[in-house]
Design goal:
TIM Barrel, alpha/beta, 8-stranded parallel beta barrel
Amino acid sequence: MKFNCQNDKPEFRILTEKKIKDLYSAALQILERTGSAFECQEALDLLGDAGADVTDPAKVKIPARLVEQAMAEAPKMITIYSRDGDPVMVLDGRGGSHFGVQVDSMSYLDPYTRKRRPFEVRDVIDHIRITDALENIEWFFTCPGYSVVPGVLAEKISVLQCTLNSTKPIVAEILTVPGLRGMIETCAMIAGGEDQLRKKPFLIGSAEPVTPLLQGKEAMEKGLICAEKGIPHVVYGMPMLGATTPATLAGCLAIALAEVLAELVVLQLKNPGTPVIGGTLASVMDMKSTIFSFGAPEMSLMVGAMTEIYHYFGLPSFGTAGCTDAAIVGAQAGVEATYQVMLSALTGADLVHDTGIIYHDKMVSPELTVLVNEIIGMVNVTIQGVEVNSDTLALDLIEKIGPKGSYIAEQHTFDHFRDFWPAKLFDRSYEQDQGVANCEDQVRQKTIEILENHEPKPLEAKMVAELKKLEKSWFDAEGLKYEYPKADK
């Protein structure tokens, strides 16, 4: 690893070019010799027609030339828009990292009581509204694990609530094919039709290969639908060192890359030029507890390594940061989240998800989301680097002031002191007494302040009415009363 601050921004490398090529070659060998399992007939047909060996669907052999072809056809730049049709993110490996929050989960750490309870739709809405107010959290990630409504409803409701309570774009963890169709219908209504959504996407799909080397039926079908509709699509697995991959970083990375490349090939065969964002959420199996760790340093190291691989080949990347294994928002959460944000920002992952999740992805904490927003602001100081020019060198001023002088009353100081990062939640008081709140209290206070005062930009009333009508049809199709049930405590 090295730092080099001679350019505008710091340079940071985990992998050498040789290591990237070796890992890529290993992934190609896995695809050609070991093979990958496919459960989707359409994917098998596409691969077979293109020359892959699909004799055994449990061990489909994909030749390297198909991977090279897919890499060449996949867009190297993807522009993502807001709900209102404004460009808000450019994913090209050069535009910096864009951090996103997971808005839903199985459990919710209530900022008022600081107690864990089952997730409800009202909590999804609150977390979206909080995130809408945070300048450093740029998009939403929906991963509905709450059980107050069936999953096919929950995944559509989460996307719908994102559109109702914010203009920020959405990456959807798609559970079902019908759920995906409902999401597309929702966002197309707002965009003005599917063609407009294709031109200015603010919905991004996602699906996960199952490690090791399985492309599941529904996951692949969802990717094919996104390819057909021209909707950007994230492909990322969740390899687990020592459980679903070899207990070595290189072995895990090789499998993770092979899984993404296998789906990339299918999506480009379906529709050449399909916008695909590659990623991985690889981590270790903690050998004491057997959990999939969301705070392990190896997780961030592998996310960073995969980012460098994708960017080497010109593909946008999907990362993870701002989460923790801790069950509360305290010292452990702060340390793990900061390490992750720093490494993701230094390696330049384009989309970075999972901000706000705690307790190894079993719970969401709005307070952690607010804290990570502050952490991202701090890390951005490093990412911006050191600007060196005649104004910042200030040699004339230094000569004017000379030894033993003071700069505090100078115009140059007045012009630049606002360039300093302004800590909002961290204590910098000159004198401390019992009246000074600690960081945890400051975070809680800020979270509740947003909840009680922030008003997101609304959609037009006519559109809201149409969306609510659509949502009611989802409930009707499931034979359920149109309401948001409360969870059993």
